[in-house]
Amino acid sequence: MPCRDPYGYVLTTSPEAAAAYSRGLLDVLRLRSGALPSLAASIAHDPTFALGHAALALLGHELCAQVDVPARLRDASLHAARGTARERSHVHAVTQHVAGDSRPLIAHLAAYPLDALLLSTAVPTIAFAGVTEVPQEAWSIVERAAPAYGADWWFTGLLAFVRQEQGRFDEAMSLSCASLALEPGAGHSAHARAHAHYETGDHAAGLAWMDAWVVGDGASIESISHFAWHAALHELSLGDLDAVRRRYDGQLRPEHGLGCRALVDTGSLLFRWALTPDATDVPTLDQVAALAGRDVLERPATPFLAMHSAVTLLALDDRPGLDQLARYAAGHAHPTQREVVAPLARALRWLAAGRYDEAADALAALAGGIPRLGGSDAQREIVEETRIAALVRAGRLDEARELLDDRLDRRRSPRDRRWRETFSDAHLQTT
After folding, report:
1. 384: how many CB neighbours lie within 10 A of its CB?
2. Theoretical Cys-Cys bridge with 292: which of 152, 256, 282, 296, CB 3.0 to 4.6 Å?
3. Which stretches within 31-168 are classed as H helix?
4. 3-state secondary structure at position 31
5. Which helix (H) or strand (E) holds 3?
6. How far apart are the C-alpha atoms of 54 and 76, rounded to whole Å?
7. Residue-level pLDDT at 259
8. What sign for the dihedral angle of Cα 6, 12, 16, 21?
9. Considering only CA atoms, which of 99, 142, 133 is closest in space to residue 91?
10. Does residue 4 sit in helix, strand or coil?
């Protein structure tokens, strides 16, 4: 009897290695801590297990996990020949994805939709940055896989995330709650629910639910800093800056996260906190930058990380770093790095240099391409907020008000309302 993964695919390895791999896969799907040790155990049990090597390489690449990615890819490719056609296709997809070409991964999912690890990789969520430049393409990948999964708790949570990205918030909430009813600790489902609360301006209820979940059913979640970021975003939106500071001190100080997570969660919160009206004594991003390291800041592996690197370098007034990031992205093989990241870094370099009009115009020109960076709408808002700040510094208050009015039309936010009021106050003081 061959070994199989939780979705029924054959695993060419020993029973012990297959069991460890399956534990690791389910931990990834739940966002639970323990995935990396379990996957490492799978290749300890069987050093010739290609999918174990590939999974470790994928997590090293996507999550900045402490993995020797080239070595794991080399071993995965070396041993893939002894596996099934699905396993060979899986390893090829991972290898090409890490190299910057995700087309084989998309093709793989068309043939093997129940390959949950790679389906998770394909969609920009809490764990992965996604593999497409247009959100609708990622949604299509998920929709095509739906018949294969049925009412599976993990897929239901993934579909909930897609629905909130589509603005179908009632469906997103229903799907996420259905998934959590089957698997109360399902991290992806909780994440979808967090976004649905935020995008509908349901800040008080969203905050209360999140605070209860992270100490209850979600207590074993690996990416706890991201859920803390969601809670802090509610607090920020409510204008409760004392609560934001408590959240930062208790859950989001850089030492609570590692590498990319500190950059993405803590760094983005600090940046947006500093832009908030009436904010004082906001901690600097120096420690975040130190944890991320110069390679991540100036040569980020993905466009999603590059977005966070760029705003961190701006916050530090690191103009040489922004110049280096722009050069790196301009020469990159990935079109999003060249066409979105490079001009974004240049725009923020102009902002750092006080060339506010040029920065604001460049950020406006980039607005349509920002979704290509990956991540969620809530994460990509950091670019829009930078543009608002550039407009304010350029004295173009009507344009800044228009952007905030659009945001307030989408959802309630005392913080954005207060931000808009400060522009009126500034105008009155100069007339």
Report:
1. 17
2. 296
3. 35-45, 50-63, 69-79, 85-98, 103-111, 116-122, 135-149, 153-165
4. coil
5. strand 3-4
6. 5
7. 61
8. negative
9. 99
10. strand
pLDDT in tens, 321-370: 999 999 999 999 889 999 999 999 999 999 999 999 999 999 999 999 99
- Angstrom distances, CA of residue 349 to CA of 58, 247, 319, 320, 392: 32, 30, 6, 9, 17
CA distances from 392 to 275, 344, 389 (A): 11, 18, 5
Residues 6+ apart with CB under 8 A from 288: 254, 262, 263, 266, 267, 270, 312
Condensed to tens digits (0 to 9), the pLDDT of residues 261-310 reads: 889 999 999 999 999 999 999 999 999 999 899 999 999 988 989 999 99
- Which residues are within 8 A (CB) of 107 and not within 5 positions of it... i.e. 6 or more apart? 93
> Which is it for strands 3-4 and 10-11: parallel, antiparallel or unpaired?
antiparallel
Report the mean per-residue pLDDT for the chain.
Answer: 93
Q: What proportion of the chain, given as a percentage, has pLDDT over 70?
A: 97
Residues 203/216, Cβ–Cβ less than 8 Å:
no
Q: In b/e form, how buried is each residue of 54-91, taking b as 16+ CB within 10 angstroms?
A: bbbbbbbbbbbbebebeebbebbbebbeebeebbbbbb
The residues that bridge with 282 in the sheet, in sequence order, are: none
Q: 10 by DSSP, 3-state: which?
A: strand
Dist. CA 174–CA 180, nearest whole Å: 10
Whether the Cβ atoms of residue 64 and residue 260 lie closer than 8 Å to each other: yes
Closest CA to 297 of 308, 284, 281: 308
Residue 141 to residue 125: CA distance in whole angstroms: 14
Q: How many CB atoms lie within 10 A of CB 334?
A: 18
Cα 412–Cα 348–Cα 243 angle in degrees, nearest 5? 40
